[in-house]
Design brief:
This protein has 186 residues and is α/β, with parallel strands linked by helices. A seven-stranded mixed β-sheet has the order 4-3-2-1-5-6-7. The chain has one domain: Ribonuclease H-like superfamily/Ribonuclease H (Nucleotidyltransferase, domain 5, 2-Layer Sandwich). The two termini are 25 Å apart. Helix 2 links the parallel strand 5 and strand 6.
Length: 186
């Protein structure tokens, strides 16, 4: 894996994808190589818990278009970079909403971030299950705060902003990519 992708989606109240953020990174450094942001029509107008964040952080979409067009562009973008490995925080959620990408090899960032044995920043005082997994506060916002030490950080729920933040979580965890848990679809 010389390059990999990190993806995030935001959905409407009816659970339709309304935006997709994707970043391409270098495996050795976790350095950003390229990014894409899609806002899907007509779903952007259907409302959702995070519809207000579609244009947050000054992230202008690369395309604001129907899903079929966005997915065609996204697949070409991934192919141009030779991407076969895709990472997501709570990967099952994004995988389930993007069947067009089911041929890729998916990995879950959360499966390392939320476990004491993989995340030395988890304090001894944190409540964990016997497996070492945090019982609570292991979402993107909590994990970013823990790893960065920035208690003011707030997740925007903008798909591109969140994909960038998830890449930063990976960078701060500093694990080789082969340590991540591969998603095993049901």
């Amino acid at each position: 894996m010389s390059r990999f992708a990190v993806i995030d989606t935001e959905t409407t109240w009816a659970d339709a994808v309304m935006s997709i953020g994707l970043v391409i990174a270098e495996s050795g450094t976790f350095g950003l190589i390229d990014k894409r942001y899609y806002i899907l029509t007509p779903y952007k107008n259907h409302g959702g818990m995070y519809a207000h964040a579609l244009y947050a952080r000054n992230h202008a979409p690369d395309l604001e278009c129907p899903r079929k067009q966005a997915m065609g562009d996204l697949l070409s973008f991934l192919e141009d970079y030779g991407i076969v490995d895709i990472f997501a925080y709570n990967a099952a959620f994004d995988y389930g909403h993007l069947p067009e990408l089911s041929h890729l090899v998916w990995y879950d960032i959360m499966k390392l971030a939320a476990y004491r044995r993989h995340n030395p920043k988890i304090p001894e005082s944190a409540e964990c299950w016997k497996t070492g997994r945090l019982k609570r506060h292991y979402g993107v916002e909590s994990m970013y705060r823990l790893l960065s030490g920035d208690e003011t950080y707030c997740e925007t729920h903008n798909a591109l902003g969140d994909a960038l933040d998830e890449l930063e979580i990976m960078k701060r965890l500093n694990h080789d990519l082969d340590r991540y848990v591969r998603l095993r679809p049901a």
